[in-house]
Amino acid sequence: MRQKMTSLLIIDPQYDFYDVPLNEQLILDSKQNTISPSLPVPNSWEDAKMLAAFINKQQDHINNIVVTLDSHHEYDIAHSIYWQNKLGEHPTPFTLISHQDIIDGIWQPTKIEQLSHVLKYTQSLEKSGKYNLIIWPTHCVIGSVGHCIVSPIHAAITAWEMHKATQHHVISKGENPHTEHYGGCEAEYPLRDDIKTQFDPQLIELVKSSDQVFISGQALSHCIASTVEQIVKKLSSDDINKLTILIDTTSPVAGFEQQAKTFTENMANLGVNVTKTAEVTMD
């Protein structure tokens, strides 16, 4: 009898997205500096502990773990340094920049040679109904602690690797500074000259080759929502039924609770399973 193939997809389980409690924060250097997550999602540390417990409990049954990592540079279209106003001031975090704002000169790219690109970019986002361009706190910078997998999840993955004598697989997204990359399959605005921003079938193939795929990570309202939406567009109804969102291991960005609720309802209507870890049984 063929062994059931169970995969776990963990989306962006990185320090910058987790509300790490003070007594759990890393000591970074001899000066006793601790990590200060730039975009912590409320309740995410509890989510991390819940997911770690799930991985530890289901070690024998999980065959494959795939982790996406949000991977940025300081200079990024969704970071403030990319933009400036007429006074040369950069936007504050959570500033929305519309296509009309650029036309009106309220915000311009710091490198003016990007003007044509950002006009096309924002117009495309708004016409396609994707997230409007928002300036996030600088986050998940490659090489920083904020880019690393949080300790509870990292420890559970390491224990699984040792138990199964295998390794997890990483998909990096977001390195190109000229487009946002919420979803694990493709950027919000794929660029012709960068294949890493274009559609990547890896996650589609993961689902097709698995009997079930559990989904977790952060944040439910953004990168999980985008990734799952991108995946289901390419799947049959039978394959969609393989997906299960572990709802007690993920949370929305503050202020985006309704978007997360709408997303989970839409996915459930399509056949994606939405359940808590305690309700999962595996043979």
UniProtKB/TrEMBL annotation:
Entry-linked SUPFAM superfamilies: Isochorismatase-like hydrolases
Keyword Hydrolase: yes
Keyword terms of this UniProt record: Hydrolase
GO MF terms, alphabetically ordered: hydrolase activity
Classification via InterPro entries: Isochorismatase-like_sf, Isochorismatase_Nicotinamidase
Top-rank taxon: Bacteria
Similarity annotation: Belongs to the isochorismatase family.
Protein name: Nicotinamidase
Organism: Photobacterium kishitanii
Lineage, broadest ranks: Bacteria, Pseudomonadati, Pseudomonadota, Gammaproteobacteria, Vibrionales
